[in-house]
Write a structure and sequence with these properties.
This protein has 18 helices and no strands. Helix 12 packs antiparallel against helix 18 and helix 16 packs across helix 18. By secondary structure, it is an all-alpha fold. It has two domains: about 140 residues, no CATH class; about 150 residues. It starts with 8 loop residues before the first helix and ends in a 7-residue tail after the last helix.
Length: about 375
């Protein structure tokens, strides 16, 4: 039996069916085009607004992640029969003490070591150029490396090059002021988020319909615990890594051990990849001491990487890092491509959150569908 196609009002008026092109065109093209144009302008304005406040959004993002990283410490104090308010106060005091140590001890120490390294750079470079391995490398390459190094140093140390790199003295000054203000904002936001984390989660849960709140609250609690454990564990691993680098740098006679430790801390915040990257950075930087020192550093740090992978990381991270290694690497690469170092840092927490949502929401929903949709 043939099915009859319904006839539209336009077809009844004209007496013939509409063409495919006529069916695709809007009924009111002028109004539709104006609506689309307004939507595009609003999207451009929204993108420009987000780009303009990107620094504020990054500060809020960092403050929330640091607060989630401090939350496991508050929970540990609560398990010791301490009230949450007292636990938050203790953790906040410790956090402020760490910030004070960074500002009053590490920053001046780093500035002194960098200044000393800059002053001793000509003697260090001259001694390196007179070493046997440098002369052998220069002979094998057939290039006057001394001239290349001298020209590079001259181009970097001239005032015009500095202004070109920094964008001008005024821009550089505003950059320093912006960095200081962003640091203060991150500290303040971290303290606020730590103290009001429970109320923030309660407000988010209240936005969900009542019949879904219990399940949503369970998933949100597991996500925050997992993200907090990952952030706290990652920071702990980076601190241990920085201390190991500091000891090795002191042992090989480096003139900037604190600087290398700080660089190691930030680089190794990137999971899995960071330690291998710093192995190259630290080995190349230790070449300025001597080739033997660079070799000792590379071997000692490589040994620590193995110990960290098989002993330290399982004990520190525990179940918080239940993320397959290949997903960690892929997430870090995607995050670094999109947001640079910040994106690489949040790769594991975001990946862990997505896996929790898949395990708690998507898989149970799929398992509940025991029959095909057609019956």
């Amino acid at each position: 039996m043939d099915e009859t196609k319904p006839v539209t009002h336009t077809e009844r008026e004209s007496g013939r069916p509409l063409s495919r092109l006529q069916l695709m065109l809007p009924a009111k093209p002028l109004l539709s085009g104006f609506t689309v144009a307004v939507g595009v302008l609003l999207a451009i304005a929204l993108a420009a607004t987000i780009a303009g406040i990107s620094t504020v959004l990054i500060s809020i993002f960092l403050g929330m992640f640091l607060a989630l990283g401090l939350d496991p410490a508050v929970r540990a104090l609560e398990r010791r029969r301490m009230s949450r308010a007292a636990g938050v106060a203790v953790v906040a005091a410790v956090f402020l003490a760490v910030v004070a140590v960074i500002l009053l001890v590490l920053v001046p120490m780093t500035i002194r070591q960098v200044s000393a390294a800059i002053e001793a750079a000509p003697e260090t470079i001259a001694a390196m150029q007179q070493s046997e391995w440098y002369l052998a490398l220069e002979a094998n390459l057939g290039v006057d490396l001394s001239a290349v190094v001298a020209e590079g140093i001259h181009s970097l140390t001239t005032l015009s090059s500095f202004l070109a790199i920094s964008g001008g003295v005024l821009k550089a000054g505003f950059g320093v002021i912006g960095a200081v203000s962003s640091f203060i904002m991150v500290v303040v936001l971290t303290l606020y988020f730590v103290s009001s984390l429970q109320s923030i989660k309660g407000a988010v849960v209240s936005l969900v319909p009542l019949y879904r709140r219990a399940r949503f609250a369970d998933v949100l609690e597991e996500i925050t615990q997992s993200v907090g454990g990952v952030v706290a564990g990652g920071v702990t691993l980076s601190i241990i890594n920085a201390l190991v680098v500091l000891v090795i740098q002191f042992a090989v006679g480096s003139s900037i051990p604190a600087v290398m430790a700080i660089v190691a801390f930030f680089v190794t915040l990137v999971p899995m990849i960071g330690s291998l990257v710093f192995l190259v950075i630290g080995s190349v930087a230790t070449l300025f001491v001597s080739p033997l020192a660079a070799l000792i550093f590379a071997i000692a740090y490589l040994v620590y990487i193995q110990v960290e992978a098989y002993v330290v990381t399982p004990r520190v991270m525990g179940k918080a890092a239940a993320v397959p290694g290949v997903l960690v690497i892929i997430g870090a690469m995607i995050g670094a491509t999109l947001l640079g170092l910040l994106g690489a840092l949040v790769a594991i927490p975001l990946t862990a959150s997505i896996l929790i949502i898949v395990r708690k929401v998507w898989i149970p929903r799929q398992n509940s569908q025991t029959e095909p949709p057609d019956g």
